[in-house]
Write a structure and sequence with these properties.
This protein is mostly helical. The chain has 7 helices and no strands.
């Protein structure tokens, strides 16, 4: 029989795929141009985060992290082929910083330390997209990031076990995606361009 954690976990996955459906719609229309570095790092990290949550018995609260890992992988492949491939020095520094932290993660077998590291790495991964979104706010689908923030708040309520290894990464993602969404909307107002359906 389903309990409330299963319902929260399933709801978070549904919200995730609604957000990604909107993102893929905008990819195909050519209005959204993902930054390959960010999606590469996010795909790797969400896979690691999902594994750590499983080890620490995250339960239904981990489902959305697994769903995210799959979607990030697909978007990364698309971004490498057709996304934003204009990489400035800042982007390369972010990517190198992320991979240095990944090397540190490789040598640890502790799920809690791994999650702390992937959270730090994710910040490096977000920086290229944040920079691009600040300068070109109409090239990102704001609704997708709003859905990402919401789904991780819900996923937190679905966690079976609360430990640093299970709640830190989704909490960070809920906050980071909320901040990014707000920044996109503020920058769009500043640009005073016609509204899109993003």
């Amino acid at each position: 029989m389903l309990d409330y954690k299963d319902i929260f976990g399933g709801s978070a996955v549904v919200i995730a795929y609604i957000g990604y459906a909107l993102y893929f719609r905008d990819l195909l229309k050519g209005t959204t141009k993902p930054h390959a570095f960010s999606w590469l790092i996010w795909g790797i990290l969400t896979g690691i985060g999902f594994a750590a949550q499983l080890v620490e018995h995250g339960g239904p609260g981990a489902w959305v992290t697994g769903a995210d890992a799959f979607a990030c992988g697909i978007i990364c492949i698309y971004a490498l082929k057709k996304g934003d491939r204009h990489f400035v020095r800042f982007d390369w520094i972010s990517l190198i910083g992320a991979f240095v932290a990944l090397l540190l993660w490789w040598f640890t077998h502790d799920p809690t330390f791994s999650v702390v590291l992937i959270t730090i790495i994710d910040i490096f991964g977000y920086l290229p997209t944040f920079r691009k979104g600040f300068h070109r706010p109409y090239e990102e689908t704001a609704t997708t990031y709003a859905c990402s923030s919401l789904k991780f708040w819900i996923a937190l309520m679905a966690l079976q076990t609360f430990s640093l290894a299970t709640w830190l990464y989704p909490l960070y993602l809920a906050i980071a995606n909320g901040i990014f969404t707000s920044m996109l909307l503020i920058r769009r107002r500043q640009f005073r361009l016609p509204k899109t359906d993003n």
